[in-house]
Amino acid sequence: MRDLLQLAEPLVVSDAEQAEAALREAQKLAGALGDARSEALALTLLGATFFFRSQYPTALQVLGQAQAAATRAQDDRVTARVLNNLGNCEVALGNYGEGMEYYQQSLRLAQACGDEDGRTRALSNVGLIHLELGEHELALEVFQEVLALAEEAQDALSQSSSTINLVLSYYHVGRYADALTLGAAHLPVVRALGVRQHEVVLRAWLLPCLIQTGQAGDAARQAEDLLPLAQAVDDREYVAYIRAFYGQALTQLGRLDAAQEQLLLALAEAQQHGARLSERTVLQHLSELHAARGEWQQAYERLQAYEALNRTLHAEAVARKAQVMGAQMQVEILRREADAERRRSAELTQANTALQAAQEALSYRATHDALTGLANRAHFQAELERAVQAASPAPFGVLFIDLDRFKQVNDTLGHEVGDELLKAVAGQLRGAVRSGDLVARMGGDEFTILLRSLREPRDAERVAHKILNALAQPLLVCGHTLQVTGSIGVAVAPRDGQDVGTLQKHADLAMYRAKQGGKNGVRTFQPGPDEAFPQPPGHLEVERDLRGALVRGEFVLHYQGQYDVRTQALTGFEALLRWQHPTQGLLPPGEFLGIAEDSQLILPVGAWVLREACGQAAAWQTRAPGLTISVNVSALQFEQPGFLTTVQQALEASGLAPQHLILELTEQAAARHPEATAQQLARLRGLGVQIALDDFGTGQSSLSLLHQLPIDLLKIDRSFLQAAPDPEANRVFIGVMITLAHGLNLLVTAEGVETSQQRALLGELGCDSMQGFLLTRPLPAAEAEGLLMPPAASAPPASLN
Fold first, then answer.
1. Fewest CB atoms less than 10 Å from the CB: which of 20, 389, 475, 591?
2. pTM over 0.85
3. Quick check: helix, strand or coil at residue 154?
4. Are residues 607 and 680 in the same domain?
5. 42-54 per-position pLDDT tens digit
6. Per-residue model confidence as pLDDT tens digits over 57-84
7. Domain boundary among 63, 90, 114
């Protein structure tokens, strides 16, 4: 029996089908002999054959039988091995929390019975989890520890697994030369062992290292040679990986047709077998291949698919990290001397303390906003659900708070000041409520508060007014004295709703009523026939002030410089509307443009902006010939039959050459009526003006819109530079947009450049021009004129870097 099991074990990873046949015979024989230990071992190895063929549910079923047999045999070593294999299956199915629990049980059992082989196996799998979660440096440390244990135990298979995992870790931390050196030294050892699965995995991860070190030709030859072995082993995920790396190498070699064939085969393989990590890799390489061939629509579509899958995998990785609690196993690794009972006891105490701290830290991160330390949206909704389900006789309140004119702080002082202001406001909100109440940040400048156990419904409104008074206190933020106000909506349960969605909706509606009523106010939900609020007087007052503003000359333009990415020379300005309100001060467009569009006042205001911007640009031509001026056009303006005449009149009155005027239309506005938009744009270009598509990438329009519309420039929205959960994916996305635009003979301007790293990235990717706070803030005309310099000295001012 022992000889049969020893014969079958190496076949598990080299020839799973042959191993399965041998192990089924071993199981039958052990059962007939009443040898529970041998039966458990046979079932454990049999489960592994299904695992290596990606048949995880079957593997779990067989391992469950193995666990029962090991329990009957009362053999802790076999039980530890079964638990380890159960963990492998759970992790493969995405159940990382369950997998880590199995590994922990296996590790503890192996240590208790002095099973160093079992301890090595469990620690190795912990390292693999760290690797999958992107904790590459930590994984490297674990695998180095495991290799030392395997060498001490002189376990050839464990040494081989640990060495291969080290190669994989070296690749992920960018140590490609180390990976190639270690892999080349270990390959003869793997072949001598005859473990074909190990050879497939080792050689597969040497392929991207060859590509990264400029050896694409060697990588292509190695991949072609390796594919038959991977197919013979029947590891479908690694077949997909090898084809993906093969396609990447062929792309670099310029063999694009062959590359596409391999990548499409890899994609089909990955999708058929649910290997989503492989699928993500393939989609990225396919996008790069289509871009290299000038197939821009296919490149964009592949990139969109990559982005969607990457977002899904990123969200799952975050969930896995919350399950796994990586620090939990770091403590276990420190327990090296299992034979010293006193030290083990001390280390167990330390482990429990560290585990508790790690659990508390992870729990905090999962339920709190990273910026302010307040509860996050998910935690608030969970607590609100508990309050609803408790069905307490005492009412409770929900407050929805939106800060007034917060965007103005971001636009004028920068996002760093805005973030610090949000932290300060969070402190004011905490101080205004009881310790048992819950304050949360829902995102942006929106906050919610759960007021528990009110004496009467009116108490909620009283607290809201208390909060307004707290917000009215001046705050010193980054050297600026700031005073914020808020609009607060109030809903009280059970009167205004008996479920989470209704209460949040009604508090939100009440907040909007407060906002429309002039801001800095409190409104309690009042149901109507359709739960919609009538237009409050504040809206009419703003509209009245807007009409007078045009007559009184209260509108002004600020100008933000646009710079050549390569030379850093000033190339033009974007004209940005501001309202110098007689009582509220300088207002950004977000405070009034919505009302202007609703009342159609945007038409005379927009015409004034065109005339003013063209006149200023014409005056600057003597000092900066060729300087352009960009003017934003609303959808309502653009769709007016007389808009073409409005543009002509502005050009004629100012004397500005048409080619120096750039009209900016948002992607969303352009997509409303594509055919009519294309006709109107063609007429405008007939005048000689340039057309820019603004906020590109933020809408839902198809790529065909770019082919359909006669435009000259593409403006990449600031969100692509500033929101990067995956920096490398973001870089690829921006690069494809730039390449796509250049392929269509369009120039590209990037908005929202706030760091030198962002500027350097745009230079690397070949972007044409840029604007943002790093270069210059929007300035009044007199101050903007100071930026006009001779070409040799027209780089952005150093004081703003």
1. 389
2. no
3. coil
4. yes
5. 898 888 888 878 7
6. 999 999 999 999 999 989 898 899 899 8
7. 114
d(CA 89, CA 50) in angstroms, rounded, equals 10
Give the per-residue pLDDT at 217. Answer: 94
Domain membership flag for residue 83: yes
Q: Per-residue pLDDT tens for 432-485?
A: 999 999 999 988 889 999 999 998 988 999 999 999 999 988 889 998 888 888
What token pair was written down for 512?
């909007």
CB atoms inside a 10 Å sphere around CB 205: 22
In terms of Cβ atoms closer than 10 Å to its own Cβ (0-12, 13-18, 19+), residue 642 is exposed
Residue 203 identity: R
Q: 2: domain range?
A: 1-114
Nearest partner of 438 among 463, 469, 420, 406, judged by Cα:
463
437 and 567 fall within a common domain: no
Burial per residue of 112-128, b for 16 or more beta-carbon CB atoms within 10 angstroms, e otherwise: eeebbbbbbbbbbbbbb
**Worst-scoring range by mean pLDDT, 106-120, 434-448, 743-757?**
106-120
In this structure, what CATH number is given to the domain that contains residue 459?
Answer: 3.30.70.270
Structure-derived torsion over alpha carbons of residues 66, 67, 69, 71, reported in degrees to the nearest 10? 160
Structure tokens belonging to residue 20: 């399965």
CA–CA distance, 303 with 305 (Å, rounded to integer): 5
Taking the CA atoms of 259, 265, 266 and 271 in sequence, report the sign of the dihedral they define.
positive
> Token digits for 164?
């291969």
Q: Angle CA(392)–CA(396)–CA(402) in degrees, nearest 5?
A: 155
The residue ranking higher by pLDDT, 201 or 92, is 201
- The secondary structure of 317-363 as a DSSP string is HHHHHHHH-THHHHHHHT---TT-HHHHHHHHHHHHHHHHHHHHHHH
Residue 726: Cβ within 10 Å count: 14
Please give the backbone phi and psi of residue 568, each rounded to the nearest 5 degrees, phi first: 65, 15
Q: How many domains does the chain have?
A: 3
Question: Do you find a cis peptide bond into 625, omega within 30 degrees of 0?
Answer: no
